[in-house]
């Protein structure tokens, strides 16, 4: 048993002190992936002490909802696990001038305290702000009543394999818990908006030949030589940049693995080129596949090799290996437009497209537009010297309060 | 200890009976590679009983020489090991009509006994003829005095890795034992001449790139895509057929292996294409390498990657992996011309080029022209139903006696 303290909020303290205190408390509870239990326990207990919240738990994922009878609902989600610690636990507040403060942070935030340690940016700073909002947006006064109902999701196992992901699990087990018109995941973005994401498919493109001894090569058919056509098509392909809802999504088509041959003196009878297509959210999975192999090739995960009937690899063998749909940024809705405008006013930043596949796509698959928006510098995530300046907490809280209330 | 009988020759029997008896005796002595000792022992003892021979042994290789004071010397060589047995040891004489006789052999040799079992064609039939010649060409009468001195080599470990090869070892340890103007290896050729051999070099052609996450492919450089140029050059290459000393050598240039990539979502930073060039004996090793990578690329076995300065793969990285020189057929010398004429008269067959690398190339490297010429069908070598019709022995003996005496 880890001996943890209950998470508390001092009602007499200033807002900034409350935010810093919440962050300190949750960073002091060790929560590397697979060890989220104690932090999930204290998070659940803290939320249950707020009478305006309905709190539910699945595994180490805690879901808390308001029920103010609003027409719309917004989901605020944050993972509570961290990557493994590297001598950066427990956390420490660094006073101005401390040599552990990174130069870039010291320059941007002189005379400011910095919280150093595992999880500072990825993503306990955002978690602390969400806990603050969960406790204080209680519907008791106009200043503490949001324009929308809110669902807070604190989930486990984001930093490891997708099959362990707590958000995925709660969505599958309790889809009714995760409903709303818009979602924010508090991944570090320096309070900018990063929206949607490219989809990705991976498949083998296969050539076949006839084996023979390489001293009698004319008795065989060289499958590796045939793969020249595959690589030539990859080189001829011009990846597009596609604008979706105002964001630019850069596509990519790449061989990531190649293998072929049975021995140094054997004409190879098979060659496999593993191809990864990253496609913009203007395309469905089916559309992306059609562009690669034709609409009716019939290649599906686990059903073996099929001949591409069209697309880039027409005529070659195709074996599907992996697929994940794209997610539109969902910035067209009025709620989202308000957020974009607020972020532009306060930070001068335009929304950016997310390139890799992230948890926002899970919401997108549920039909819930979602973006990443969180405190802290994303470049410090997973770093040994992960740290966040104290004012990042209030910057995020200000932004969300201005949007929500 | 294997309990073997001494090899004997009945002076009262007919020549054909003597040949059949010798083959039976040596096939009854198990001699799969690594177990040649007993057969080497009996071969050595048999040869030592011939007073006109000087017999020497290195490992399980036995070398026996005449010293008739002739101006020229011919080497007759045969390996005594076999590939592993597959229910085809000990050997059996099959009478005409026996269902174990292959149809093709029964058709070509009706009413003839067939010796069935491991080593029948590869190559104890030829070994038996050589033992017969070693015992009977004794220099005592004009009919038993060859026009040349003879050196008989019975060697071990031909059917396994080259580093174990007994012919290679005796050539390295005792170069003075293996001298002559011409050599015949009795590999099965149906008594045809197969001469010289292509050389072979193997090398990796390497491309380099820059690794990156495949969601941000433009941050990297795809080494597999770059390999398109290597495969295109292979496809553009037109392998030649080169006539050397009247024989046609068909060349070949092939990728036999390809590999590249570090993970399904990583832009690959290296791709290796393993290439095998089989070149005709009009080219030295250096000339063959120059055609692939330029004369001054500097790539040698074990010295890592160099840039090809010319040739087919100019501009790519090259790492040498293996090299073996070609061997000219050496059919220009009068001795060889006599043999070619005799084979043509008796079998109607013209000499053929050897395509793979064989032990004749070892003699070629010593400056001794060499060909394969032996009893039995080469297509039956290593087969479960390996067998040889009795008359193949006298056909080979007739041919060699007509040439030598």
From TrEMBL, chains A, B:
Pfam families: M20_dimer, Peptidase_M20. Residues 199-292 form the Peptidase M20 dimerisation domain. Keywords: Hydrolase, Metal-binding. GO terms for biological process: L-arginine biosynthetic process; lysine biosynthetic process via diaminopimelate. GO terms for molecular function: acetylornithine deacetylase activity; metal ion binding; succinyl-diaminopimelate desuccinylase activity. It is an enzyme of class 3 (hydrolase). NCBIfam families: dapE-gram_pos. This is Succinyl-diaminopimelate desuccinylase.
